[in-house]
Amino acid sequence: MARTASNMLPLGTVAPNFELLDTISGKKVGLEQCKGSVGTLIAFICNHCPFVKHINKELAQLGKTYPEKGIGFVAISSNDIENYPEDAPNLMKQTALAEGYAFPYLYDEDQGVAKAYDAACTPDFYIFDADLKLVYRGQLDDSRPGNGIPVSGKDICDALNALVAGESVNQMQKPSIGCNIKWK
């Protein structure tokens, strides 16, 4: 497995706007529809990556827990489907349904959104506050396939809980590690 780290977009960066196909509903969905009243979590993921498969259960659970606390949730796949057909939109929908995603799973066909966010790997996480300013970027937690550390979502939960409580998010953040985004 390739191990690519997040690029760690500067904190305070305003979330780039987007409108992409939601593979679950078949409709175009934009940042405004995904935005939460307290904050917004954007996850760059894909179907085939073992790092994403490793955290899918926790990601699905977070996507059910935090929207009721005012956190918008969305996942985006930007991979080249010509060379990685298992990441195609019809299979994204199957994965979303199988994993129980309660959030949109968007397809970034031209990879423009991944480039705008400087996304580097799957999974790659970004949390924005109510004003869509970046307060967290990096890993879900310290667990990786094969390292024996249980998946807990600790880093993301700590950041989300601080945001929900109206507290500052800890600026000591670790980059995510995963498969590189499959660029065209």
Could you explain the architecture of this structure?
The chain is of the alpha+beta class. Helices cover 27% and strands 23% of the residues. It is built from 5 helices and 10 strands. The protein has helices at residues 31-34, 50-65, 89-99, 112-117, 154-165; strands at residues 4-5, 19-22, 28-30, 39-44, 71-77, 105-107, 121-122, 124-129, 134-138, 177-180. It has a 7-stranded mixed sheet. A 3-stranded antiparallel sheet has the order 1-10-7. A hairpin with a 5-residue loop joins strand 2 and strand 3. The longest helix has 16 residues, at 50-65. The radius of gyration is 15 Å and the shape is globular. The chain starts with a strand and ends with a strand. The model has no long low-confidence stretch (mean pLDDT 96).
